[in-house]
Design brief:
CATH architecture of the largest domain: 3-Layer(aba) Sandwich
Shape: elongated
CATH topology of the largest domain: Rossmann fold
CATH superfamily of the largest domain: Vaccinia Virus protein VP39
Number of domains: 2
Number of strands: 7
Radius of gyration: 23 Å
Largest sheet: 7 strands, mixed
Order of helices and strands: HHHHHHEHEHEEHEEE
CATH class of the largest domain: Alpha Beta
Distance between the termini: 15 Å
Length: 272
Amino acid sequence: MQIPSHNESAPRSGFPPASVGSMSPALTALRVQLLALLTVALIAAAASALTQEWVAGDFQWALLHGTLAALIGHRFGMAVWWLPIHLAFAPALVAALAFALPPLWFFGGFVLLALVYGKTCQTQVPFYLSSRAAARATALLLPEQPGFSFLDLGSGCGGLLHHLGKVRPDGNYHGVEVAPLPFLLGKCRNFFRAAGCRVSWGNFWDRDFAPYDVIYAYLSPVPMAALWRKAHAEMRPGSIFISNSFAVPGVTPDLSLELDDFEGSRLHVWRM
């Protein structure tokens, strides 16, 4: 598949990863929850002082906490999808405690979530898995000549690399993943393709993009502007940058491919 060259000029200078975002939404969410908790505590203290009859139960207070947290989160300008999380957090916590599960269950759940999503508060990139449709479309964009190099930014469990390695075994595939558990799964999944596929644990912002013919990203809207600057500064002329679903703000792609998957996604493609 022929992709037209992108003619936009860009400064060829490095871009520091620390500049990707300002305050982490997770820290903002923590502030919201603490403010809601303080407000509920003040309301409870005032209600206790005014009446001797205690009519509200734990779940009712949790609902009040969730409602206040959602309102405060909206006032802080948080993304819309954070609001149901704020609304449901305290009620879900009270409901879970009602089952009286052993503490080890909660600890195990925390560890599992941390191994998968622990870096999300820093990277602001959720854990997305590329669909089979995305893998098939990406295979059509690979260079025709053998020996090309491909880098998956945030390779997850290695599904995309596994598919491309089967369809085009003449390529060299690399993945980088910061979440420990998906990294281990991806490493094991592609272990027997060691000659043409390597999965590394680390931050892709520290990776030089220059050696790669194709770079693939399925991240979030937050880092796309910074990622574009890094790609334009480091990628070689003629190399291809692919973003699943998330466009670069203010930069028209050279090619967009509709994907027939359950998310109705689209691949945005730029030739450097």
